[in-house]
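Quick one: sequence plus adenosine-5'-triphosphate SMILES, need structure tokens.
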Amino acid sequence: MPIKAINRANLEYHIVSLKDPSSAIAEQYRKLRTNIDYSNFNKEIRVMSLTSTFPGEGKTVTALNLGTVYSQSESKTLIIDMDLRKPKIHRAFNISNSKGLTNIVIDGEDKDNVIHEITDNLHVLPSGEKMPFPAEFLMSKKLRALIDDLRTDYDKIIIDCPPMTAVTDASIISKFTDGTLVVVASRRTNSDIAKQIVKTLNDNGANIIGSILTRVQKKDHRYLAGYYYYSEYMED
Ligand SMILES: Nc1ncnc2c1ncn2[C@@H]1O[C@H](COP(=O)(O)OP(=O)(O)OP(=O)(O)O)[C@@H](O)[C@H]1O
Ligand SMILES: [Mg+2]
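Reply:
Sure thing.
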């Protein structure tokens, strides 16, 4: 499949790490990548998912940038959109979502026909045609078999998920990933609700590999010394 050109004029999401790899923001995503790799050196994290409490906390932006920096470090990387209710990954690359993950699993579509090659190392699988029962789809054996198959094709698979408070999808997805990242938005995420989703993920057997703080404002900096992962994308 030919490499798709990215029409930047139409991008809803700016993938800073792709557009400007030498920027300070891209450097923060590389730090995040390093933190994930070094903190989990005893267990290979090949497939990871991202979730959060509520919509708009930065899951998709983080998945896009993290996937990009992995691909730039010679890891063959696939970003999969498993937010089947509000899919957005395709918009970032200006690619079609008429066929994607759901079409491979349900219609037997060839994966090579629906995975988009953004660069040699960065591939994207949009969510595909909408379906009435996303949770049932996510629990299907066929989906697990596909992920197992993709594990042999890619070094890293980054899965963008819906938020935890709306639906159970992210918990279901976490069962077939090697690790789950919890995205927390500065000044927005309610800490009690965040603790609750961490408990729910743990109770479901998820391997939580860390949290990522997003939407940090400059004035927040002095409070953040103890943060485990710190993804900086500063708002004034
Ligand atoms: N690290 C960040 N710092 C500042 N703003 C951010 C950051 N990450 C994302 N944003 C902004 O927050 C908004 C929501 O981001 P995004 O779509 O990634 O959230 P989401 O958690 O995927 O939402 P949804 O649950 O609706 O899919 C966007 O306008 C995005 O530009
Ligand atoms: Mg999203």
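The chain is about 35% helix and 15% strand. The pocket of magnesium ion (ligand 2) is lined by residues 59-60, 83, 88, 160 (CB under 6 Å).
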